[in-house]
Amino acid sequence: MEELVVPITMFILALLLGVEVIGKVPATLHTPLMSGANSIHGIVIVGVVIVAAHADSPLSYVFIFLAAVLGTMNVVGGYVVTDRMLEMFKSSAPKKKEDAEGSESDKKNAAKKGKAL
User: Fold this and answer.
1) Distances from the Cα of 48 to the Cα of 11, 51, 61, 71, angstroms
2) Partner of 94 for a Cys bridge, out of 45, 80, 99, 114, CB 3.0 to 4.6 A?
3) Cα(59)–Cα(77) distance, integer angstroms
4) pTM > 0.90
5) Are 116 and 109 in contact (CB under 8 A)?
6) What pLDDT shows up at residue 115?
C-alpha cells in the first residue's frame, strides 16, 4: 500500500496543476491548444504498440485494445478540430485566373454600363 502513496500523490498534483493551467488559458487560445494536444496524444498509440509486444493475458489485451481505440479517437479528433479551425481562416477569394480578372461577359456588361452613363 505504501508504494502507491507516491504515484497517487503525483497523479493528484498533476491533476490540480493541469486544472490550474487550463483555467488560465483564454477562450480564444483554448481550441488551438487542445487540438494540438490531441494530436500529440499519438504518443499513446506508440506506447500501446510497445506494451502490446509484452502482453500475455486476456485482461492486458482488453486494456491494450481500449488504449488503442481511445488514443486513435483522440488523435483523429485533434486533426478534425485543427482542420475545422484552419477552414475558418481560408480566404473566399476566387481561385481561377478568369474569376480574378473577371469573365468576358462581365467585362462587356461593365463596358455597356460605362457607355450608358
Assistant:
1) 20, 5, 10, 9
2) 99
3) 27
4) no
5) no
6) 58
